[in-house]
Design brief:
This protein is of the alpha+beta class. Helix content is 14%, strand content 32%. A hairpin with a 6-residue loop joins strand 8 and strand 9.
Amino acid sequence: MSAPRVVIKGEFAVIGKAGRASRDSGVAWIKPLWHQAVASFAEVGHLALRRADGTPVGVWGAMNDLDESNQPWDERGGLYMPAFESPLDAEPPPGWMKWVIPAQTYLVVSCDTNDYHDVYARAAESLAGRIVGTIHEFYPDPGADRIDLYFPIAKGADPISPAHPPIDPQAGEACTPASVKEMSWPL
């Protein structure tokens, strides 16, 4: 696991194939969603934001609560969607979903498929009570082993502001923009 970092990300949209699960259903149901989305990508590939080299800008394992209100999963479970970033005004074809993820400040922790569950559990435990939205997986190099876990720690268009400061998990108090970048996160 690399050192956690803070990322401020503006509002963005993702298009993908979503599925629903209970909290205790494990992860076996997620792999078929990825297969379905990848196999059907040609239907929506023209909607993907792309880098100069033609690869998608962002491939996400986006999550949402059952009410699709960007809240953490609750005792009922939640939604998971293999997705790619798209323009905010993109319209998905039938059979595909679009979620607009609000602007937030994230604590981002990188891991790989071997240590994913351990890293996720440690980060979620360390940030208990401080996660303000839905957690997401980002795949910076699709097909590679690296996964960046995005834990939202502040909401808003300008997330690090006096109105929406992230919480320093060590001190239990609001952070300033300068201190959040220098913060040592106990993960």
